[in-house]
Amino acid sequence: HTRYWRDWSSDVCSSDLECLRRWLTTALSSASAGGILVAPASSDGFYAAGTAIQAIATTNTGYFFSGWTGDATGTVNPASVTMAGPRSITATYTALPVTTIRTNQAGLSIVVDGASYTAPQTFNWTTGSSHTIAVSSLQGARPARYTFNSWSDAGAISHAITAPISSQIFTASFTAQYPLGLGASPAAGGTVATNPGSADGYYNTGQSVQVTATPAAGYQFASWSGDVVGPTASQTVVMSAAKSVTAVFTTVPAPTVTGIVPSVGPIAGGTSVTITGTGFLPGATVALGGTVA
């Protein structure tokens, strides 16, 4: 049969019809960046000579369409190509910069453009676009909570940012706070005071807190239990985590007289008497015959 030379390959045509068809090839500058849709579609990539086709570049998250190269040029999307011969077009893409919004304590809440997320989150924004980032001033509960300090860009707790031309991280800094539980055993035995004080019992991480036990009337301080131990009434607690301390009090035993020297003396008085015994509180007074000695 008659053999025809194709103008686009080293092969030969099998018919007059085939030699009137033109082949379209498409390519992407990055395989993960997007795709190309062609209308009208072709099952084998061949088109009748003179066919006008449209090539539409689609874009995946993290990229933007930069333009066409090959037999289509410019940035107009879709591109028009006339199949006057074999044609090859490439859609070129540019990776968008990554903007990361995070907190220095992982897992806290952030608000980006009005939507709530758990930090950290990444976004592929068009350079120069405006966005709002924000956090709540106090987050979390027992055994730890977090109080807002500042943003890494020195912005207010809620403020607008401009998408950068290169990848950038915005960090909300928080300080961890832990509760200090105080107790007395028995409850009527005395009180426990802290220095410095706290309105709600929370302290910043690393803070040193002095706890002091004061016995009630009829009680004496015995020891601490919990996150401090020992018989010293005033102790220091370092708030590296949630802490709890209990002051243990015991009742003061009734005084017991074990000796009186001399045991007898003149009624007239004036004799010095030494009384010994146990259970006498500091500053106690002794009455003999109803009269304070």
Cα separation of the termini = 145 Å
Q: Structural class, from secondary structure content? A: mainly beta
Radius of gyration: 43 Å
The total count of helices amounts to: 1
Order of helix and strand elements from N to C terminus: EEHEEEEEEEEEEEEEEEEEEEEEEEEEE
- List low-pLDDT spans: 1-13
Q: Top keywords for this entry?
A:
28 strands; single chain; 293 residues; mainly beta
Question: Secondary-structure map with pairings?
Answer:
Layout: E1 4-5, E2 12-13, H1 16-19, E3 21-28, E4 34-39, E5 46-48, E6 52-59, E7 63-70, E8 79-82, E9 87-95, E10 98-103, E11 109-112, E12 115-118, E13 121-124, E14 130-134, E15 138-141, E16 144-151, E17 158-162, E18 168-185, E19 190-195, E20 202-204, E21 208-215, E22 219-226, E23 234-238, E24 243-251, E25 256-261, E26 274-278, E27 287-288, E28 291-292
Parallel strand pairs: 3-9, 10-18, 18-24
Antiparallel strand pairs: 1-2, 3-5, 4-6, 6-8, 7-9, 10-13, 11-12, 11-14, 14-17, 15-16, 16-18, 18-20, 19-21, 21-23, 22-24, 25-26, 27-28
